[in-house]
Write a structure and sequence with these properties.
Elements lengths: L4 E14 L2 E17 L11 H22 L8 E8 L5 H7 L5 H8 L8 E5 L6 E7 L10 E5 L9 E9 L24
Parallel strand pairs: 3-4
Antiparallel strand pairs: 1-2, 2-7, 3-5, 3-7, 5-6
Helix pairs in contact: 1-3
């Protein structure tokens, strides 16, 4: 693997009650996070192919870890998202390179599908910065019940010369969704939108 990984962390969140009402079955989401060395920290580099390739490697690793943490087969995952935070010596473009579309193919492979774009966020921050991972339905971006997010943080990352990279998956949408729009039962799965 090209990535120099200092740490891998997995988070699982299960919501059993929301708004004073039981959630049955509970909604579950998981994020797998890698803390890696940023090979371009502190210097401008025109060609970011190395980071793009690292993103491709991490996509499969992190998606598989997140699905395993949920204890479900990949095809049962309904939502996904990705995020990255660079340390102070990195550029936002380094986060963009890691999250480049090459990261998406191995994520989709781990989930056996994924027609919709994988929502993403990028930021710069120091150790303990919150990483907000946006979530959306993996096959139909217009399914409002799956517009969600997951916040994770690692106390000692990213250091100045690191990047924190995360992939999140969920086995459902938000608890008790009721804002209307396309439902998951109405998905056609043709264009990634509906």
């Amino acid at each position: 693997m090209k990535a120099r990984i200092r740490k891998l962390v997995t988070f699982v969140e299960e919501t059993r009650e929301e708004g004073g009402r039981a959630v049955d079955p509970p909604t579950r989401r998981a994020a797998a996070v890698a803390v890696i060395e940023n090979p371009f920290a502190g210097r401008y580099v025109e060609d970011l192919t190395e980071l793009i390739d690292v993103g491709e490697e991490l996509g499969g690793l992190l998606a598989e870890k997140a699905v395993a943490a949920l204890g479900i087969p990949g095809e049962r995952a309904e939502s996904y998202g990705k995020a990255a935070a660079v340390g102070e010596n990195g550029e936002l473009e380094h986060a963009a390179a890691i999250l480049h579309p090459k990261l998406g193919a191995p994520v989709r492979k781990a989930l056996t599908k994924g027609a919709a774009l994988i929502p993403s966020s990028k930021k710069r921050g120091g150790p303990g910065v919150a990483l907000d991972i946006p979530l959306g339905h993996k096959d139909a971006a217009f399914v409002r019940s799956h517009f969600d997010g997951m916040e994770v943080r690692i106390a000692d990352a990213p250091r100045a010369n690191e990047i924190v990279v995360a992939v999140a998956v969920a086995d459902s949408g938000r608890p008790h969704p009721r804002v209307g729009g396309l439902t998951k039962d109405e998905i056609k799965g043709v264009d990634g939108l509906r």
